[in-house]
Amino acid sequence: MKWVGRCGECQAWGAVEEIGAPRLRTVATSAVTAAAQPIGEIDPEAARSRPTGVDELDRVLGGGLVPGVVVLLAGEPGVGKSTLLLDVAAKFATPQTPTLYVTGEESRAQVRLRADRVSALSPNLFLAAETDVGAVLKHVDDVAPQLLVVDSVQTMAVAEVDGAAGGVTQVRQVASALIAVAKERGIATVLVGHVTKDGSIAGPRVLEHLVDVVLQFEGERHSRLRLVRAIKNRYGACDEVGCFDLGEQGIIGLADPSGLFLTRRNDPVPGTCVTVALEGRRPVVAEVQALVARSSLATPRRSTSGLDNARVSMVLAVTERRAEVSLHNADVFTATVGGVRLTEPASDLAVALAVASAAADRPLPAGLVVVGEVGLAGEVRPVQGVERRLAEAARLGFTHALAPAHSGSAPADMQVTEVDDLRHAIASAFRHAVIPLRRPSPN
Ligand SMILES: Nc1ncnc2c1ncn2[C@@H]1O[C@H](COP(=O)(O)OP(=O)(O)OP(=O)(O)O)[C@@H](O)[C@H]1O
Ligand SMILES: [Mg+2]
Questions:
Q1: Are 401 and 428 in contact, with CB atoms under 8 Å apart?
Q2: Counting atoms of ligand 1 from 1, which one is nearest the CA of 217?
Q3: Is 412 left (phi over 0), alpha (psi -120 to 50) or beta?
Q4: For residue 76, which atom of ligand 1 is closest to its CA?
Q5: What are phi and psi of 67, to 5 degrees?
Q6: Which residue's CA is the closest to the ligand 1 atom numbered 23?
Q7: Ligand 1 mean position to 249 CA, how many Å?
Q8: Is 205 in contact with 65 (CB distance < 8 Å)?
């Protein structure tokens, strides 16, 4: 404490008074929702998940839907969001667990027609067409659902809030209102969100922090394959992927998608190479195809489909420089089969071998599968989960593999050659002119 004669602010003498110790500001107490309890005494049953009945979705969710969970299913227009959720809603609905599907985009009759087409009629599935959240909450009161589907969050609006439906403010308010109801009543809630290719429409992105689970629904327009990937999951791991086949009869889970991404043929053709990708934790056997053709253009064409453009350019440059595969004056096309996307570095070796095979016009053996990342110096680098990948390839009848060094133990009925650089890998691949594909075991 020291004496101050003159105020530093207004320069007046004797104006400074002692005020004593500063007082703490306090917050008034309010009612608690439930008394704090020792953690061991809290009943975990309330957060136990319940399977939806769609296995591939349950796999991604980590078992099923927990009461009160709020899931955002984000995807591009037309990818199949409504179809999937109608199927889930119908399968989930029982007399004890009624389901409410609210559509803001289609009429009830349109949804009914879709339900007929994809066999999603259930007496316990209730349908409402609304765009006002207040009205949705009224339906929730009436139906008392265990699962609420809102298709889509961008078409809903809260009347008290300014701004058009789909705007950031509205989307946030709509989600907050629905989340509050979901948590209060323990209703599992799935919100549909539209995103464009670059994810630029603000809607779903601003919701990612608010919801418990964010699922990304992916698929190419020209293919029937659909993948559901968890980007965030408060109740489970994020490393699982659900695979679906979207057809006229609806959306069907693919428990074993591996064989889809291969071309079954008796005689091997030049320019194809099989690899095993990891989709989440699941190994998926897939084929890379390449075509190398003499170019008449000043700048030869490089085109890829289903692969990462930048990685393919890098692999082509490495293949040309380090493995002396001549690609100048040649158009190079690379693609995957069946609409699968291979963006992992582990598919590099397959791209390089497919291109080398196409350039030499020599087929690789039919029973050969390869995995490995290719580095700029032409080295073949280790990748994750080689044992799991090769076990899956062996299950599908592949008998020989090229893999990076120190890849762990090989499956019993597979011969694995460890390769450390690309030149060595290409030489090993062509050494065996014929390695037939074994008939896959029936299980
Ligand atoms: N009558 C039909 N017969 C066969 N296939 C159909 C039919 N109607 C729709 N489809 C297919 O189902 C796909 C998925 O439609 P769905 O409405 O589920 O997608 P969505 O993601 O909900 O689209 P949106 O973003 O417009 O809401 C369509 O792209 C179309 O290929
Ligand atoms: Mg839809």
A1: no
A2: 21
A3: alpha
A4: 25
A5: -55, 135
A6: 78
A7: 11
A8: no
274 HSE (CA, 13 A, CB side): 32
With 0-12 CB in 10 A as exposed, 13-18 as middle and 19+ as buried, what is 345? middle
> For the whole prediction, is pTM greater than 0.85?
no
Q: Ligand 1 test: best mutation among 248, 251, 252, most atoms within 8 Å of CB?
A: 248
Q: How high is the mean pLDDT in each 10-residue block of the chain (443 residues)? A: 70 70 70 86 84 92 92 91 95 95 94 94 95 95 96 91 85 94 94 76 74 90 86 84 90 83 78 91 90 92 94 96 92 90 94 96 92 96 93 89 88 92 93 63 47
**Going by CATH, does the domain composed of 259-431 fall within 3.30.230.10?**
yes
Q: Which two tokens stand for residue 425?
A: 């890998």
Q: Which residues pair with 247 in a beta bridge?
A: 250
First to last CA, the chain: 86
Tell me the residue type at 291.
Answer: L
Collapsing DSSP to helix, strand or coil, 44 comes out as helix
**């009160």: which residue's tokens?**
68
48-255: CATH homologous superfamily? P-loop containing nucleotide triphosphate hydrolases (3.40.50.300)
Residue 96 pairs with which residues in a beta bridge?
Answer: none
CA–centroid distance, 192 to ligand 2, in Å, is 8
Ligand nearest, relative to CA of residue 75: 1
Cβ contacts of residue 329 below 8 Å, gap of 6+? 294, 295, 300
Of the bound ligands, which one is closest to the alpha carbon of residue 150?
2
Report the residue among 73, 76, 81 best suited for mutation to probe ligand 1: largest number of ligand atoms under 8 A from its CB: 81
Ligand 1: list residues with CB < 6 Å: 75, 77-83, 105, 117, 194, 248
Structure tokens at 109: 């009759």
Where do the domains of the chain lie?
48-255, 259-431
Distance 204 CA to ligand 2 centre (A): 15
Q: What is the pLDDT of residue 206?
A: 81
